[in-house]
Each structure stands twice: as structure tokens, then as C-alpha cells.
Design brief:
Pfam families: Fer4_9 (PF13187), Nitroreductase (PF00881). This is 4Fe-4S dicluster domain-containing protein. Belongs to the nitroreductase family. This protein has 273 residues and is α+β, with helices and mostly antiparallel strands. The chain has two domains: 59 residues, Alpha-Beta Plaits; 169 residues, NADH Oxidase (3-Layer(aba) Sandwich). α6 packs across α7, α6 packs across α9 and α6 packs antiparallel against α10. It binds flavin mononucleotide and iron/sulfur cluster (SF4) (2 copies).
């Protein structure tokens, strides 16, 4: 197996920080003046987290795996006052009414670029995205979800009563599946990856949190997801790569309304030991 990292002997000061920081404990040096490197067998267990490359004060470590290299953090810009962050997070709302205006692809790409930095189990980064950008296609997919609900209700699905309401509302011209959003973002991944669901939820959570900074709103599309994981017609319409499953979906667009207030929440429930 190729070594996932290389260390530049001239640049390395032998400070040992990379050895301390490696979460897998696979970087070592023979003596204090020797160049650090992976221990035998280390390449096989390296999680490709990039901590060694990110931490090295001398910039001596090069990770050889990612398609996109490391990025320098602009000084100070990663700091945010807790009160500012709290205000931002508290202002986030699920958006169920959208303007008709489309979000341009560059903005969606910039949003997804932020989400690339979300954590993932063992740094697997398993999430792929399907962005349904055409509003007419979003409606068509929502219609397929409704078609599945009609059938599922007739077949005695345990959620038949709720599906009945969604179907009747759809027939009356109201989309409660994708909430009339112009776009739908679907996180998909290898169906056999046991971490894919958790990682997809984390990535979508980041997307939801980052969206308002772009002036955008989101809505978790749970009813859509239910249909997408059960309806062969919807699965075919999504056209995901072979072996991939839709992990979760989220409606996206410009919010129609501004929310001047934050609703109450339960108090923090915490046990200290
Ligand atoms: C579901 C999940 C499980 C994780 N489990 C561990 C763990 O058991 N031990 C650990 O050191 N890191 C764990 N991590 C952290 C990941 O390894 C880490 O997110 C990844 O390497 C990317 O690095 P970052 O946190 O710097 O973004 C976990 C992350 C996730 C999302
Ligand atoms: S952190 Fe960088 S400079 Fe320090 S020992 Fe590791 S590679 Fe060398
Ligand atoms: S990429 Fe992560 S796991 Fe691999 S050697 Fe560097 S710090 Fe260790």
C-alpha cells in the first residue's frame, strides 16, 4: 500500500507534534533527530484524517490521498463570538414557504463546498449529492412520492391516515412533500456502508446550518425520504449510481418569509456526574 503521508526531511524540525496528534498513533521516530514516519503497517490503518498535515508548524507533512489539497485558514476568521453564533443558530427555522426564484448553481456549489468539511466516521467522507435543480423535476419526484403513498395507504401501511392527508392536500394543489421548494438536495451513499446514514445526517445538518448564511432556507424532506427508500418508481427516477441508496433529502430555496421571533424551547436537561 502507498504511504498516505510523506515528511519533508529538510523542512521538518523534529518537534514531534505530528506524533502526538495522530489519532491512530501510527507516526513515530526512531530517535529525537530522526525523521518521523509511519510505523510498519501504519498505512493500512491511517484514517486519512489529515491531522498531521494540518498541524505541522513547518508545513513538512504532505498527505498524498485527497483529490483536493489542504487549505490555509485565513488568520482569525475561524473565531466567532459565542453570542454571535448563538444568535445565528437560534434564528434558523425550517422553511415551508419559498420564493419562486431559483438559487443559482454557483451558490449551491459554494454551500456544498462548506459542507465538505463536516466530520464523518473514520473520516470516510461517504456522502455524494444529487441536486435536483429543476423545479419541475422536484414536483415530478414529489408526485412519485405521492403515488407511492396512495398505493401504500390502500395496502394498509401503518401511516395510511397521515398519507391520506398528504395525498388529499396534494390533490388540492398543495405540496407538503417538498413544500413547494424550487430545489431538492439528496445525500446518497453506498447502501452497504454502515456509517453512511449517520454521516449523511451530519452533512445535511451542516447544510441546514450553513444555508441561512447564503440567505437560503431548508426543510428536511422526511416524507419524501420515506417514499424514496420504499418506492421502486421513485428510486428509478432518482437514477442514483449502482449500489447507492438515498440517505436523506432536504428542500432548498429562498425563504418567502422572515421570522422576527424565536419560538420557545424546552430547558436544557442535563445530568452531571
Ligand atoms: C459517527 C462518527 C464516529 C466517530 N468516531 C470516532 C472515534 O471513535 N474516535 C475518534 O477519534 N474520532 C471519531 N470520529 C471523528 C472522525 O474521525 C473525524 O470526524 C474525522 O477524522 C475528520 O476529522 P475532523 O474531526 O478534524 O473533521 C468520529 C466521527 C463520526 C462522525
Ligand atoms: S510536526 Fe512537522 S516539523 Fe514536527 S516532527 Fe512532525 S513533520 Fe516534523
Ligand atoms: S492522516 Fe491522520 S491517521 Fe494518517 S498518519 Fe496523519 S494523523 Fe495519522
Amino acid at each position: 500500500m502507498d504511504h498516505p503521508i510523506t515528511v519533508d526531511s529538510d523542512a521538518c524540525t523534529r518537534c514531534g507534534i505530528c506524533i502526538e496528534i495522530c489519532p491512530m498513533g501510527i507516526i513515530a521516530q526512531d530517535g529525537p533527530d530522526d525523521l518521523p514516519g509511519l510505523v510498519p503497517g501504519g498505512a493500512a490503518v491511517c484514517s486519512r484524517c489529515g491531522h498531521c498535515e494540518a498541524v505541522c508548524p513547518a508545513g513538512a507533512v504532505s498527505a498524498r490521498y485527497p483529490a483536493c489539497g489542504p487549505q490555509h485558514l485565513p488568520g482569525g476568521s475561524a473565531a466567532i463570538a459565542p453570542a454571535d453564533l448563538a444568535a445565528y443558530l437560534r434564528a434558523r427555522r425550517t422553511v415551508r414557504r419559498y420564493r419562486e426564484e431559483c438559487v443559482d448553481r454557483e451558490t449551491v456549489e459554494a454551500l456544498l463546498d462548506v459542507v465538505r468539511f463536516a466530520p464523518s466516521g473514520m473520516n470516510g467522507q461517504p456522502v455524494h449529492w444529487l441536486v435536483v435543480h429543476d423545479p419541475a423535476e422536484v414536483r415530478r419526484l414529489a408526485g412519485l412520492a405521492i403515488a407511492w403513498m396512495r398505493e401504500a395507504s390502500r395496502a394498509g401501511h401503518p401511516m395510511a391516515d397521515l398519507f391520506g392527508v398528504l395525498v388529499r392536500t396534494w390533490d388540492a394543489g398543495v405540496d407538503q412533500i417538498c413544500r413547494g421548494a424550487p430545489h431538492l438536495v439528496i445525500a446518497h451513499a453506498d447502501a452497504k456502508n454502515p456509517m453512511a446514514y449517520t454521516d449523511s445526517i451530519i452533512a445535511l445538518t451542516w447544510l441546514e446550518v450553513a444555508a441561512p448564511s447564503f440567505g437560503l432556507g431548508t426543510c428536511w424532506a422526511g416524507f419524501f425520504q420515506m417514499a424514496a427508500s420504499a418506492s421502486p418508481a421513485l428510486a428509478e427516477a432518482l437514477g442514483l449510481p449502482e449500489g447507492h441508496a438515498p440517505q436523506y433529502a432536504m428542500a432548498l430555496g429562498y425563504p418567502a418569509y422572515r421570522f422576527p421571533r424565536v419560538p420557545g424551547r424546552e430547558p436544557v436537561r442535563v445530568t452531571w456526574r
